[in-house]
Write a structure and sequence with these properties.
The protein is mainly alpha-helical and about 325 residues long. The chain contains eleven helices and no strands. It starts with about 25 loop residues before the first helix and ends in a 5-residue tail after the last helix.
Amino acid sequence: MSAPTDYHPSLDDPNAWVPYRYNPSLAAAVIFLIAFTIATGWHAVTLFRRRTWYYTPFLIAGIFEIVGYCGRIASTKDLWALSPYIIQSILLLVAPALFAASIYIVLGRIIRFTGGERYSLVPVKWLTRAFVAGDVVAFLAQMTGGGIQAGGTISSLNLGEKIIIVGLFLQVIFFGIFITVATVWHLRFNRQTAVQLNAKRDVLWRKYMWSLYGGSALIMIRSIFRIIEYLMGNDGFLLRHEYLLYIFDALLMFLVMVLFLWLHPSKLTMFETSDVQPGHDMEEGGQVAARTAGHRPISQSTSSERKTLLGRFMPSKR
């Protein structure tokens, strides 16, 4: 008698590849679907209201999380269906790469906000581009690995797994270099006394710097967890216990979204429009003096008017 065509190996069979080594929890998937939907919706409203288009990767990452947990919900209905498994596997895997890209952008904003460009190891105009480019390479490697796994054969699943591991290692390496660059800039800028910032600006950049460290730590912990998970293989301890995925991936990425809702980078831009850039104090003083005297600001005056105005407020050489 031939074996039935719908035969599936035991979830505990160490010699067989199976999508899940457990029955996925519907309740856990629904809870995080709701959590990410609320957080992503809030980010979308903030992005469109404040026009922070540069933060779009962060929003896309949130959408990936939402669709990924929809895939896990579908897997609770059919454990062996490959489509929902691959969808959740790929999207939950690559979403943090987009969170990381957004954090790279935040560092560039902080450096410009403080006027501390000369203290950066990497020129600010290349800072975001360089790390985002590295992040894209890691992202594409993970996507490629996930795409190969979509073939559904044992050989394609194993090959895709190896490529995903390479992508995860690249992500951790680039992220580690980024944290080093951020820390060196922070220490250099913190030690110098040449640039004087007003109290509000000084407090704000420090808040954002520590939020950057917090978000980076959460993403790094999650990425290391994923590397260990894939290195242990389909029958490894981490893949056998679903709660570890929710602790070291879902929860950590949700905290990243909440953290950057609390300290959204748009506040840096909003503050810049209502405050004076570092190093522009002389021009602001001249503009105030000009308005007091009933004249146009210095930046809008003719060269002769500037000489007259500045002569009133600057001591003459004896």
